[in-house]
Amino acid sequence: MTDAAPDSKVLHRSLLEHPETVTSADGSYFTLSNGQRILDGCGGAAVAAIGHGDADVKAAVMEQMSKVAYAHTLAFTTSSAEELADTLLDGNPFGLCRAYFVASGSEAVDAAMKLARQYWVEAGQPHRRRFVARRQAYHGSTIGSMSVGSHVGRQRPYKDALLLNNVSYVSPTYAYRVQRPGETEGAYARRLVAELEAEFEAVGPETIMAFVAETVGGATVGCITPPRGYFEGVRRACDRHGILLILDEVMCGSGRTGTYFAFAQEGDVRPDMVTLGKGLGGGYTPMAGVLVHRRVVDVLARGSGTFVHGHTYQAHPVCCAAALAVQRVLKRDRLVAGCAEKGKWLEARLRERLGPRRYVGDIRGRGLFWALEFVKDKETKEPFAPRLCFASVMRREAHRLGLAIYPGSGTADGQAGDHVVLAPPLNATWDELGILVDLLESAYDVVEKTLS
């Protein structure tokens, strides 16, 4: 970071510092205005699924812009939107049969929430007005998506003025801090499902529209994975009470965890809605979406025959063309299967090189989606004091050495705790993954020495 530019008219995330200027990006690397090359070890925020500057995506965008740059979806559709939906929903995977395309993951979650409400209104149960979600989760920055999330720092200024009051929360699948000593994975999964059932009963299951959860946790806690059997139990619990299941895969989906849908690794889950984003468009254009199960679509088709929701840039033809090109690269180069293979190698190297280190409390994730949680004491799992900003210091040191990583704070309880997320492009080379681990270890060494 550099000192704030006095002539900058951009409202940056920080009003005190001015971010570095990226002048070009190619493959897995950024080049900055000062000439420094930065290995993109986090895909921005798990966005750059196929890296930067892909020629096929650029060609697809230019071709679409030369044909139709914009068409309002009230009256029109375009071939790029139709082909993207056909590609994602070929064979109606897991019963998902319709796609609703928007420009961000936050918009996708809001759309899913509104679709859940309209579903129950048209199903003759308008008394269902509540959501159940999980603590230490992130679902977006719009009012609706922030309400079902629970990122303490991002909610704080808005909690008593803007956020919805019809949401209650249960525990995250955060084994490092929630699983009890000696508790088996199966017992842990059953306990979490029992807690969810108890929340349904306490709130009144007949009042609940949907349960909302990240399949694999993202930015708030960092790549927390569910215990085996958890989501199958969640699906059964939702079915018993007629509650919809919305899985948020904005960060962990689109192949990031080694299967296209992260929930595909969880057994018989069949979500009613799945949100996608980030890797869907790979960062080439703003792109996200909601995939909807046929049982939800059927209720609306028999009722009003419409979804009472819309955006000016919904299913934007250029955005859809870019996302379609990204999907074709994923398939052509077998990047999802490659992600699973590379992920095993990356996990082994992280555990070998950084697992034993003094302040590395936990390493977790799947595919090319990994997080390291840092603690002051590995025995007690006591986090560092928030004032030390451990994760931010790690990010700055990694940046100095030429590596971009994604920091997170408030990991342990919303206030204290630190982690960093790694989410390199799915087509990062083996050499680049090795460089990522080397640079991460070097950055950690500097930070550990400073604290010690």
UniProtKB/TrEMBL annotation:
GO MF entries: pyridoxal phosphate binding; transaminase activity
Keywords of the record: Aminotransferase, Pyridoxal phosphate, Transferase
Highest taxon of source: Eukaryota
Stored Pfam families: Aminotran_3
GO CC, alphabetical: cytosol
PANTHER family, A to Z: AMINOTRANSFERASE, AMINOTRANSFERASE CLASS-III
Family as reported in the entry's similarity comment: Belongs to the class-III pyridoxal-phosphate-dependent aminotransferase family.
Name of the molecule in the record: Aminotransferase class-III
